[in-house]
Amino acid sequence: MTYVDLTASFRDWGTGAEITTREVALKSEHTQYTGVVYNITTSSMMGSYIDFPGHIKETDDGVNGANADLADFCAMPCTVIKFERANKPGGITAADLLEACGGVMPDTPAVIINALGSTASFDIPQRSVYLTLDAVELLKKTPCRLLVSDVYESTALEGVFLQLFSGGIATVCEPANLYKLPSGKVKLAVMFPKIAITQLPCALVAEF
Known about the structure:
The chain has helices spanning 94-100, 133-140, 160-166, and strands at residues 3-5, 18-27, 32-41, 49-51, 76-82, 90-92, 110-114, 129-131, 146-149, 170-173, 184-191, 199-201, 203-207. With 208 residues, the protein is mainly beta. The strands form three sheets. It has a nine-stranded mixed sheet, with helices on one face. Strands 2-3 form a two-stranded antiparallel sheet. It has a two-stranded parallel sheet with strand order 6-8. Strand 9 (146-149), helix 3 and strand 10 form a beta-alpha-beta unit. Helix 1 (94-100) crosses helix 2. The longest helix is centred in the middle third of the chain and has 8 residues, at 133-140. It is elongated and about 70 Å long.
C-alpha cells in the first residue's frame, strides 16, 4: 500500500495568527523536567481545513467537529478526478467532470478533485479556476458527502459552497499533494479535533 499525506502546513492567511509557548516546571522526588505548552491564536482556516454545511448559517444541519463521528471519515472510498488547469483559467463543468471520469458518475462517499496538477492554489490568480454550478449539481446527484478540492468558487461568488452544503456535502479546502494521487479510487481518511465548530483544521491521508 502507498500512503500520501494530503495535509497542508500551517499558513497565516493574513489573520494575525500567533503561536507562543509557556514552560511548566514539573518536579517530584523521582524526576524533574520542563513541559512546554503552546498557546495558539488563529482563525479556523489553518492549513487544510474542513467545512461542515453549518459553516454557512443557512445550511446548518447541526453537524460539527464535536458531534461528527470520526469513524465515518476513516478509510472512506474516494474517487480521484484529475485535471491540468493551472494555466487554463475558467470553469470546470459537469461535462468536464464526466469526461475525466470516463463518462461514469462518481459512486463513492468522498470525491477528490485535483484541478491544478502540481500547482498550489495560492500560486495562481485567486479563483481563476473554479467549479461551475452544473458541476456542483452533478456531484449532488452522487453519493458524495465529502469533497476535497484545490478549486471551488469563482470571483463572481456564484454560490458553489452554498449549493454543496445545501446538498449535505462537506468540503475540505487547501489540501496538499493531490497531484501525487492516481486517477480512480483510493481510500481517504480525514481527522480533526473534537471541537464544537463547523470549520476547523484537519489532516488528510490517502491510501492506494
